[in-house]
Design a protein that fits this description.
The complex is a heterotrimer.
Chain A lengths: L1 H12 L3 H21 L3 H26 L11 H18 L11 H4 L2 H11 L5 H9 L1 H22 L1 H9 L1 H17 L6 H24 L7 H19 L1 H7 L2 H24 L14 H33 L12
Chain B lengths: L5 H19 L3 H23 L24 H32 L4 H10 L1
Chain C lengths: L2 H4 L1 H16 L7 H27 L2 E4 L10 E4 L1 H28 L5 H20 L3 H20 L7 H31 L4 H11 L3 H18 L7 H8 L2 H27 L1 H7 L2 H21 L4 H21 L3 H32 L10 H4 L1 H15 L5 H16 L2 H29 L14 H19 L2 H16 L2
Antiparallel strand pairs in C: 1-2
Helix pairs in contact in C: 2-3, 2-5, 3-4, 3-5, 4-5, 4-11, 4-15, 4-20, 5-6, 5-11, 6-7, 6-11, 7-8, 7-9, 7-10, 9-11, 10-11, 10-14, 11-12, 11-14, 11-15, 13-14, 13-19, 14-15, 14-19, 15-17, 15-18, 15-20, 15-21, 17-19, 17-20, 18-19, 18-20
The chains are: A mainly alpha, B mainly alpha, C mainly alpha.
Chain lengths: ~325, ~120, ~500
Amino acid sequence: MLLLIAGALTVLTVRNLFVATMMLGIVSFLMALIFVSLDAVDVAFTEAAVGAGISTVLYIGTLALVGAQEKPGIKFAAGPLVTCLAVGAVLFYATNQMPPYGNADNPIHTHVAPRYIDVSPIEIGVPNMVTSVLSSYRGYDTFGETTVVFTAAIGVLLILSQLRRRKEDEDEDAEKPARKGLRVSLTGLGSQHDLVPHVVAKLLIPFIFVFALYVQFHGDYGPGGGFQAGVIFAAGFILYALIFGLQYTQKVLSSTVVLYLLAAGVLLYGGVGIAGILLGGNFLDYNVLSENAVSGQHLGILLIEFGVGTTVAAAMLAIFYAFAGRAEPVTKMPDQE
Amino acid sequence: MFFDQFNYWIFIVLLMIGLYTVMSRTNLVKKMIGLSMFQTSVFLFYISMGKITGGTAPIVVETAIGAPETVYSNPLPHVLILTAIVVGVATTALGLSLVVRINETFGTINEDEILEMEDDT
Amino acid sequence: MSVFGFHFAALVVVLPLISAAFSALLRGKNLPWALTTIVSALSFYMSIQLLIEVSANGPLSYEMGSWAPPWGIEYLVDPLSGFMLMIISGVSTGVLLFARESIAKEVPEKQLGMFFSAYLLALAGMLGICITGDAFNIFVFLEIMSLSSYVLIAMGAGNDRRALTAAFQYLIIGSVGATFFLIGVGLLYMMTGTLNIADLASRFSEIEDTRPVRAAVGFLIVGIGIKLALFPFHIWMPNAYTYAPSIVTAFFAGTATKVSVYLFIRFIFTIFGIDFSFGVIQLTDILMPLAVLGFLSMSAVAIFQKNLKRMLAYSSVAQLGYIVLGIALANETGLTASIVHIFNHAIVKTGMFLSVGCMFYVIGSPYLKDLNGIGQRMPITTFGFVLGGIGLIGVPLTPGFISKWYLILAALERGTYVSYALVVAIVFSSLLAVIYIWRVVEVAYFREPPEGSTKTEAPLSMLIPTWIFILGSFYFGIETSINVGFAKAAAAFLYGGQ
């Protein structure tokens, strides 16, 4: 716990943004460990994959494009400090009367949650309660969450594809050599000479995909589910791109396909919801999907988790492609951690 | 007794550090890092409140007959935070893509320098 | 209501969400636009049906996944949320009718599919916030709306690179606001064990004396205040509105901050309850000065703007001041004034931003210095703008007058010397509005157009929607039974529901 604070302080003070990013990754990882000790295995899994994995890749990708050194001469800012202390004070004031930590009689353990714990294994037939709450009781939140990911991917694509287009419009002839340079940079992404990463990656990537599928379909029984699987799946492709070059990766899975997959995930999720209506239930009602309510729930959860996985994997890849495609000809994409 | 609310204190301190980073730093990437930390601290808050001492992860386990009944921690905060983590990474991705574009159009990612340029135009 | 009509409660939000995924795949100039417009119009139709249903038969609850609340997520349409749904989808549809020519000029054709996808997501986010009966679900939809609005604002970068910094600033401030909201919801959850709004409300009175709840109220008000652009948290808004593409500004000016106002009302009245909000923690003492300072200072700032869009943006912050004042007055008339003003301001401001959009389409600049003699160069557009301005000032027979009239009535209802001061402040602020509108009139009609300029009007497809909003605003200023009727019903519901 104290390590967390130490890490966070380092992030604040360190000038070099690479170091700050690494520290942030470490903070996330520590956080994931703490989550495990707090019984939140699903969350820990996600935090490790996202906070320590995907975000770090994103930050490094950005830093490669914008430069890693923070400007010296940081002023001491009194206003923000006072605000932060005030916010902290309010919360500290609140902790005094908060329900005691870890006590089973707290309101949140006695009011709504017991139903999830006691009845969900029977109603839904899925041992992992997080999965059943996530995809059935609060399935609509998860639909929203999938949409958030979709929004982000659409947003990144829109924002990052803007300038390149304008360049083309303005001076098409003058830009031609530079565009060639851009293409060189895409191949430059991979490292052609290092044998060790190539071999390791070739060995590793199939396992990553298998693991992703396992996480995808085993979410009912253990920690995992569509979101984590999507991230891992995307990580496999990103690793491939880092080692062998973006060009080859896009040959396997082109940006257009990624875009279609992106939409397909949301449509699958929404489609399951609409199917609920057409079969006489409410939106996202899985009970009506099959003769038997429990098997209907199973089918519904399976399908929507697949939708989530598809969208998340496609979104992560789309975002990665967009960032990597921006790389300047000279800038070499740094390797992963 | 004294350390009863220890988790919540850590949450508060992390939150303050994150918020301070967001507000005081002029480097846009540093601001995003601060924002990520600020959001992460809230995850800790939610997860801490879901914990029951002596509980286990909310995945059904077979208990031997006669053994004391298993106590599960509250799954609901976990679900909420899964969603929140996703929202967080979505925000990060979007923010960073804006940083990249700002760097391309303005040639810097320092807020003060950008503000100066905006005043000129 | 038919069985299928019952599902409108879900479809009104889900349809735009799913269509967003389709839209991202469409190419060309017309297809994405057509899809978006049709979907928005369908949402508008469903909103009206829902509002009629709710007015006749009382609140409508829709259980997502057929799980009863508080275990599942519930959609709840009551008079207030029904009214909001209608405003949002209506403004969106009107703006979209205008959008085809306008946006094609500001966003490259290749990106239109995804642009409209983001637009639909923003629409779905707003509708989702207004209709949901679950506090955490609000957060999810708040983020859908926010993320897509950051993107839409950044799309203005084709015109002015400052759109990027505006979007980034909004992203940072907006995310901090949303996270504050999340902390507030977390604290409430911690104390009550529930996330369902109705359930929260019923359990709130037991725990209202505890410190975490006080802190939660603080976090929620600050968090929503940031999103609302409540003075002094408004700094992100003028930039964002100034540099976004025209239709995005028009859409958001009418709806985005109004959604936050809705949240404000929802939390203060439904969850905290009137006795707690205005009796125990004395919200009036906090909100009223902020509101008054807000509309006075922002109206004054608006006078000195050189950019027409920025002027209107500051004026929007000022108008939000009126709305918050109505809430702070803590009586039914005040709340009615607020809700009426949400409607009136949405329709007037959208009309005005659309006229500016027409000018921008033809002239290519929103700066006053480039608009000399615009009254002769684009007579129809400019006349529309001026009519909208008159509505904004609050001349009798315009919608602005109706809202201010109720606001003044509500102030007088309090019957203290403060209320007379408030009346003076409202009138004074309206005079400031006269000044900034007059500045435009002066530029438009009393300055010579630049040499060689010709008379060019915007295309009809843009003029007609603009005039629908302008004429509509006069219609609702004279025939007030619809807007005031629904607002009164909503206010009475919120006061009576306690």
